[in-house]
Amino acid sequence: MATIKLTVEYEGTAYAGWQQQPNRPTVQGQLETAQFQISRQRIAIIGAGRTDAGVHAWEQVASFRTPHPLSPQKWAPALNRYLPRDIVILQSEQVPDDFHARYSARKKIYEYRISLHRNRPALDRNRVWHVHYPIDPARIREAIPWLTGTHDFTSFEGPRSGTTNRMCTISNLSVNEDGNLLIIRIEADRFLKQMVRTIIGTLIEVGRQRRDPSDLPTILEAKDRRAAGETAPPHGLYLLRVLY
Amino acid sequence: MATIKLTVEYEGTAYAGWQQQPNRPTVQGQLETAQFQISRQRIAIIGAGRTDAGVHAWEQVASFRTPHPLSPQKWAPALNRYLPRDIVILQSEQVPDDFHARYSARKKIYEYRISLHRNRPALDRNRVWHVHYPIDPARIREAIPWLTGTHDFTSFEGPRSGTTNRMCTISNLSVNEDGNLLIIRIEADRFLKQMVRTIIGTLIEVGRQRRDPSDLPTILEAKDRRAAGETAPPHGLYLLRVLY
Lengths: 244, 244
What we know:
Chain A is 21% helix and 30% strand. With 244 residues, chain A is of the alpha+beta class.
């Protein structure tokens, strides 16, 4: 048996998210089907981040255990032959048997892209959130120190989650401007369901003067989803990298 | 009667190109249909560049003459309400009556994006040409001086063109690298059919050592399409800007 680590890029537009669901196209489902084409054995493929429907990945990480003799580096080209054009394996490698794509991850980095252009985007319509009201990035930057560090992020957790531990440590949160584009990166040891999207939705409300940067501690202390802002749409979100 | 100039962004993936064709979706067709929804009059909309199927535009320019009383700036939001998500009018403005999107254009700038990444792109699969053999950008740069200036570009012209004048002046040609991306920009007073794509295909053959930079004058002098390289695929090409 070998444990194989895959680095996966995908556009999430056509998928009901990462996680396998009956009768709906998912990224995990596509990978498991491709793997079956090669080994003729049904094997679960574990993802580091269970991205929502419409969320993209530049470098998602997945792992699986297989008795198949294919050499580790050959899994990438072999799987790519069976995968659709919007999913690609960038790399495949053998890792120690105790490696688990989700549980072994030390940190994950997400990026969220917001277009502040006057017009809705055509070319990037599935790749950025178009925010058509004025945003002050300086206000968003003022809110950052309140979110970094270790907190209970219950207020930023989406519905129907099975988690009991809501403590997360955000080790880095940055806001960059590139023309009409606002790019927010969040690095943390773990993320609750929809946590990035709720943080982004809340930060945008700060940026448009609907909330103050200093409201953040109160929102965290409330431990209530209703205290935070709207959930930003999935299509501006990218799983950028997973660190082990 | 007012003459209206439109600045148009679109993703060309879903279209059989700019130009109106019976029973096939085209960008011009979508614009003319949207215009009809507003004025209930069939009016031809002229584009500065007749982009091929799959070619994108950041700022295509189009123009039409209309007796409709809608104020010039309002055409953009009005048309956007009827246009599909992959086409957007960025701006509408009134211009003098002798303005013609194609004939009045002084220069057009095209950009071509090539991915040199080891793997095929997933997120950018319809937005870059993936070239999977080694390319030396320095060789491409050496070829540039042979193409800039005024030349007969017959050797770079696609099939079934109605043009008799094949003289074009390339005023700028640049090659930039951005990580694994090679970005080539070409500015000229006019372009023959498929001229950018044939130039790119030929430059890539130079970059991969199949031709020498100094072969370019011979290719131009041949005035024969068979002398130049392959036609690069449409999906890496963007109409960037039109200058008047």
